[in-house]
Design a protein that fits this description.
Length: 467
């Protein structure tokens, strides 16, 4: 009986233990304590000091398609304070500029530049834009090659009215690396130029360049189908990397192995990094759109995009911008179907059209490139106003870079990135008269001292000058 009683007590204890475990489940695993620093090279940009400024009597193109004749604008504390007509009064103590016969526009934004990565002088020791050692190099960052002393920055400011630019890696690779958005100001370091809060971009490329670069080395890809296969396999790896890190961040456990290339691609998949895709042909752009849908990421902009006019409806439906030249044509096979009406046709279809440079000289005259595109559209029967054409240099590039809430148009509260032109900016004879960045006068044609000059341009002391 004692034995049976012992069994009964043991059974009761087991039941009670089971009930206790049901009532109080074991604690959940601790989420992963390790977090990847997504901004290890933060912007240190500080705006230069500015003065309360009142410009009146100008033709104002606001960058969003608006025009004000005999317009006035007030700049203060780094911002556009007000924009209006002749009835907008000058605030007390303002520096007053009579702009009769001249134009005021937002500063031009170039979404495709290699300044700093391929600086002047163009010699091999300064050629730092392509890490052509593997078709997939998303781990490299363009900012780590930018030379702030590149004379091209001040040329773009003084000759072209460029206030913001995106510096991209080159197009040798399917995945070329991260881009960086810069304010066009002199600084000792690239961090001092970085646009505060701007998203990183991922430079991708399709078409001739990757298959030519790696085909010549006897490597994959050697064909366009090789391009796509390699890119898809890379995205598949990125999805798996993202899954492992998400699991660790939610539940803890073993820390996944860190991979800098996959960090960048995870940023794209998480919607934090914008894709800027070098792509010429319409058929390849359509394939890249399908690839983006397959792996669930968003393409911000196709660059060069000489055949965008063929698929303008597809670009509109998918909310993808096209950054284009006005008339570059025929310099390689995939550029042979370029037409001068490309920009106008894309715009007329309701898609996002942008004028870009990809060139240290072209960046100095993007206003003239927009003029050529506007004229080509008009010859084709499309009614394009000057105010509308400036969208290609203002609002649309700002949207493509994710900074339209801060710049790209002349609206109260936005950064005072402003150009006063000495005539009509769509004329080949017009140049910037004055350029403000965040309300600071960075260039004045009438004052040679108000123009950034890099240390490189100052030259080296002669032997007799050394003390």
């Amino acid at each position: 009986m004692r034995l049976n009683g012992g069994y009964r007590r043991l059974a009761a204890a087991i039941v009670l233990a089971g009930l206790s475990s049901c009532a109080a489940p074991p604690p959940k695993p601790t989420p992963g304590a390790i977090r990847i620093d997504e901004n290890p090279y933060p912007s240190t940009y500080q705006r230069y000091p500015g003065a309360l400024t009142y410009i009146h009597g100008a033709t104002i193109l606001d960058g969003e398609g608006g025009r004000i004749d005999h317009g006035s604008i007030i700049l203060a504390d780094g911002k556009v304070q007000a924009v209006g007509g002749a009835d907008l009064a000058a605030p007390e103590g303002a520096f007053v500029i009579d702009a009769q016969g001249r134009y005021v526009t937002p500063g031009i934004i170039d979404v495709h530049s290699h300044l700093g990565d391929y600086p002047s002088p163009g010699v091999q020791s300064l050629s730092d834009g392509n890490e052509a050692t593997s078709p997939a190099r998303p781990e490299v960052w363009a900012e780590h090659s930018v030379w702030p002393q590149d004379p091209g920055f001040s040329r773009a400011l003084a000759n072209g009215g460029i206030t913001t630019l995106q510096v991209l890696p080159g197009s040798a690779n399917l995945f070329g690396g991260r881009s960086v958005v810069l304010k066009n100001v002199p600084a000792r370091t690239v961090m001092g130029m970085k646009f505060p809060g701007a998203s990183y971009g991922l430079k991708m490329a399709c078409g001739e360049n990757p298959k030519r670069v790696y085909g010549s080395k006897g490597q994959m890809p050697q064909t366009r189908m090789g391009n796509i296969a390699y890119a898809r396999q890379t995205w598949a790896r990125a999805q798996e990397y993202r899954r492992k890190w998400r699991k660790y961040e939610a539940s803890g456990g073993e820390i996944p192995v860190r991979d800098l290339a996959m960090d960048t691609l995870r940023g794209v998949l998480d919607g934090k990094i914008l894709v800027h895709n070098h792509c010429y042909r319409a058929d390849e752009m359509a394939i890249m759109i399908d690839m983006a849908k397959e792996f669930h990421y968003k393409i911000s902009t196709f660059h060069h995009a000489v055949e965008s006019y063929k698929i303008a409806d597809l670009l509109r439906e998918n909310g993808i911008c096209s950054a284009m030249w006005a008339d570059w044509y025929g310099f390689k096979m995939e550029s042979y179907d370029a037409i001068n009406e490309n920009i106008a046709f894309v715009h007329n279809a309701g898609a996002c059209a942008i004028v870009h440079s990809d060139d240290p000289n072209g960046i100095q005259r993007l206003n003239q490139e927009a003029a050529k595109a506007m004229a080509a559209g008009r010859r084709a029967g499309i009614d394009i106003s000057e105010a509308t054409a400036w969208i290609w240099l203002g609002a649309n590039p700002a949207k493509a870079l994710g900074i339209f809430d801060q710049t790209g148009s002349l609206k109260a509260g936005k950064m005072a990135d402003v150009v006063l032109w000495n005539g009509n900016p769509f004329s080949a004879y017009t140049r910037p008269d004055k350029v403000w960045i965040d309300g600071a006068l960075m260039y004045d044609a009438a004052n040679p001292r108000i123009r950034p000059v890099s240390d490189f341009e100052l030259g080296q002391p002669g032997e007799g000058d050394v003390k």
